[in-house]
Amino acid sequence: MERTDRVNQRTNNLLGQNIKQIRIEQGLRNRDIIAKLQLKGIDISRSTYSKIELGINNPSVDLLIALTEIFECDFNRLFQKEDM
Predict the structure, then answer these.
(1) Which of 33, 37, 40, 70 is least surrounded by CB atoms within 10 angstroms?
(2) Do residues 66 and 60 lie in contact, with contact meaning Cβ atoms separated by under 8 Å?
(3) Are 50 and 12 in contact (CB under 8 A)?
(4) pLDDT per residue over 11-44, tens digit each?
(5) 3-state secondary structure the chain
(6) Predicted confidence (pLDDT) at residue 45 exceeds the cutoff of 90
């Protein structure tokens, strides 16, 4: 069953910032993530993925679940606000 629900980040791009931060912390490039997502059956372009990190596009629930598997992190980590 494919989920089409999306997480709206247009007014708050914390989610995209966290995805990018985790990716960088793990030493992964955008294209590494794209390849891993495609292996999990998530069809996404590099442009769309970049827009998610920038907070321009809203990620699907399926994509977020796949990212938690790729990053080996808790789902909540994607939504945590870091204290600066």
Answers:
(1) 40
(2) no
(3) no
(4) 788 999 999 999 999 999 999 999 999 999 999 9
(5) CCCCCECCCCCCCHHHHHHHHHHHHCCCCHHHHHHHHHHCCCCCCHHHHHHHHHCCCCCEHHHHHHHHHHHCCCHHHHHCCCCC
(6) yes
